[in-house]
Automatic annotation (TrEMBL):
GO terms for biological process: secondary metabolite biosynthetic process. It comes from Stephania cephalantha. Keywords: Heme, Iron, Metal-binding, Monooxygenase, Oxidoreductase. Belongs to the cytochrome P450 family. PROSITE patterns: CYTOCHROME_P450. It comes from the Eukaryota. The keyword Transmembrane helix does not apply. Heme binds at C51. Its cofactor is heme. Signal peptide: none annotated. This is Cytochrome P450.
């Protein structure tokens, strides 16, 4: 069994500029796709065991995220500022936030 460290690939400075910064706009002009053919980016895995839910997720994630962002403003609980957010990680087979993010939707009506 081969365990691929996708976390390390995603933070490799030889592949990504500012690898530790959240810059989703880096993908706007990029030719790198997420469907398992470009090994720099493998959110769904690759090859014969690639995630079979990819086509569903490809459609549903933008739809749901877009609807939530369009319909609500978002705050962090207890009036916390984004800069104060705890970004520590909890090590495991998959990496998680040490403290889960609790985002509060506020209706924009
Ligand atoms: C953003 C959403 C999702 C992400 C990032 C994701 C990611 C992954 C990854 C990384 C794997 C392991 C692939 C590998 O071993 O190379 C996987 C496997 C799998 N995913 Fe997903 N997945 C998502 C959504 C879904 C959905 C919506 C379904 C079902 C409706 C699904 C069903 C599965 C199943 C059954 C496997 C196991 C496939 C196997 O081992 O042969 N996933 N997924």
């Amino acid at each position: 069994m081969v365990m691929v460290n996708v976390w390390a690939i995603g933070r490799d400075g030889r592949v990504w500029k500012n690898p530790n910064c959240f810059e989703p706009e880096r993908f706007l002009e990029s030719q790198i796709g997420f469907k398992g053919r470009d090994f720099e980016l493998l959110p769904f895995g690759a090859g014969r065991r690639i995630c079979p839910g990819l086509p569903l997720a490809d459609r549903m994630v933008p739809l749901i995220l877009g609807a939530l962002l369009h319909r609500f403003d978002w705050e962090i609980e207890d009036g916390m500022k984004a800069e104060a957010l705890n970004m520590e990680e909890k090590f495991g087979l998959t990496l998680q936030k040490a403290l889960p993010l609790r985002a509060v939707p506020v209706s924009v009506s």
